[in-house]
Amino acid sequence: MFLDVGSGTLMTMRRSSPRSPVRSFLIQVALAASIVTLVVACSEDSNTDPASGGSTPTGSGGSGGAGLTGSGGQGAQGASSAGGGGGGPSISCEDGTAIATYYVSLDGSDDDDGTSLATAFRTVGHAASVVGPGDSVYIRAGTYTEKVVLSTSGTEAAPIRIEGCPGEEVIIDADEYELIPFSYVVNLSADYNVIGNLTLQGASGGMRIFGDHNLARFLTARYNNGTGISGYGAHHNVVEDSLAYDNYDEDDGEDADGFAWSGGEPDEVGSDNVFRRCVAYHNVDDGFDCWNSRDDLIEDCVAFENGNSTYMQQLTGTSHTGNGNGFKGGHLSDSGTRFVRCVAFHNPMRGFVNNSGGEQEWDNNVAYDNAYGFVTYNLPSQLRNNLNHEGQLTMDDSPVLVSNSWQLGSITVSDADFQSLTPPTPPTTSTADSPAWQGYSTSPFLKLASDSDCIDAGQDVGLPYQGVAPDLGAFESP
Q1: Could you name the CATH architecture of 23-98+159-442?
Q2: Is 283 helix (H, G, I), strand (E, B) or coil?
Q3: What's the pTM value of the predicted model, to 2 decimals?
Q4: Where do the domains of the chain lie?
Q5: Measuring CA to CA, which residue among 234, 171, 230 is closest to residue 197?
Q6: Of 257, 325, 253, 333, which Cα lies nearest the Cα of 292?
């Protein structure tokens, strides 16, 4: 399954409890695609005005993100969406709906009005301070040494967009490189914002989301002294097509995940958030962590070699090791975390762990060469069509197990079940032209060999499949 499935209507099976991980998300967040488009292309060698129709990189695929023409992945709770992540992200260039359009450039000045390329602002922070609902900000190539606070909310019909121009490398570098609590390259406390096409580095976190109904995509979070991209007490947000690597914690190694949803007790617990087609590696703690959040969906994501940071060793000369898990569910008894078509490999601890939380659903994931492939304990969860190779299993009698590779007596998983066990070169950025997940979608890595007994060995769980039954693992064979 994962990213190879063709277009079609995607239906998902939810658990029978009243809450579903994304039901309220779909109801409350859906924004009209005819009103909102995500990214405007700015050609570096021209003065093309996006509002008049600049160059337009395009793509196809998938479900409706935050309703903001998000792309790829599974449909949710009876909703239908075409693509299943098969064609890649979609970017369009219809900016005529913006109420006001502002530009940021290294050649600009915050004393100008920012309304044209010739009168662009100099800093992203200044642009963020003047926007209102329906406004757009486009950032030209370069490294901006600043931290950005996004505190102005858009609306469902008129979100605020702040994005780097596709095809141009836009880096926001806080230039702190030391542990300063609650210091983030981007601090997003507002609602209905679209953030994209940026590299975030050099603070105690790349981006922290405190608001609701936001969409972040094509972000790269690296070299931060804390978690790459996270939310705290946030609801109904989507982060997709993004990358987090070499985020470190020089204190004790326990607070630098790649991606995380969390919150405080009891009133600040986050819920109904999504990570989609994201990649996390070389983060000193875990790849993905849903510690204190409910009903989050993590789909079509990849986590490997977490638990240490090569950048931290180079920067500080020291080596701290964190938990080293690929995917960690929420710890609440009704956490409802859902992992779908995710890939965990070469993590020094667990590929997937429920973190003692309950009511989780893990469907069609693959774990390869982790110390432990799948670990569940304490509270009941449901595991279906998962594939484990070269990693131990630790489970008590709490999970409901359906058609997983270790249950089926007719299947003994070996190297021969795969086309390749050599992973692609790790990505260093995630852009519209080259999203971080693409190499894992197109390479033979962990794809099933044509004669594997894992083909058609699963049960129908509401995800699209080829053949007479679903395959085991994250990649559906043609």
Answers
A1: 3 Solenoid (2.160)
A2: coil
A3: 0.84
A4: 23-98+159-442
A5: 171
A6: 333
